[in-house]
Amino acid sequence: MSILERLQTDIVQAMKAKDAATLSTLRMLKAAFMEAKTAKSKDAVLSGDEEIEILQRYVKKRRETIELNAQAGRADLNTAEEQEITVTQRYLPEALSEEAVRELVANAVASTGASSAKEMGKVMAALMPHVKGKVEGAVVSRLVKEALGA
User: Fold this and answer.
1) Global pTM value
2) What are the boundaries of each domain within the chain?
3) 123 near 85, Cβ under 8 Å?
4) Contact 105, 143 (CB under 8 A)
5) Contact (Cβ atoms closer than 8 angstroms) between residue 115 and residue 148
6) In whole angstroms, what is the distance from residue 20 CA to residue 114 CA?
7) CATH classification for the domain delimited by 98-147, as one of 3.40.1060.10, 3.90.1150.10, 1.10.10.10, 1.10.10.410
8) Domain covering 3-89, topology
């Protein structure tokens, strides 16, 4: 079952449960999926990777909003944003721990023979297929920089 199909099923369940907050988030996610689908073509089908990318962008936007709210002194608005993140993360693959990512980074550095920050691109290219959708790119980038001594 695709993520979009799961979303549709969960929308019906949220309606029946009268869970307005979850329903709102699910509808926003579905709209994002439909927008991406129509941007491709009328009868396009999103791949699993594309679905995950949409969800990750949505979570990233919510995190940015939380940060902006905090900077503006409106942390009281963050509860709804955090709930949206929680609902969205149900559809993402289980995230890798930082230690697991560190291990993958070490393996990628060893396999590419990278020794300086100038070779970060090679390491990232080797690493991203293994962590895509399981950890944010910023975290991977930070850990690669640490491993290369940048």
Assistant:
1) 0.74
2) 3-89, 98-147
3) no
4) yes
5) yes
6) 50
7) 1.10.10.410
8) Hypothetical Protein Yqey; Chain: A; domain1 (1.10.1510)
Report the amino acid identity of residue 118.
K
- Select from 136, 130, 128 the least CA-distant residue to 56: 136
pLDDT string in tens for the chain (150-residue length) = 788 899 999 999 999 999 999 999 999 999 999 888 888 876 778 888 888 889 989 999 999 999 999 999 888 889 999 999 999 989 988 878 888 888 888 888 888 887 778 888 888 888 888 887 788 878 888 888 888 876
Q: Tokens 């979570």 appear where?
A: 59
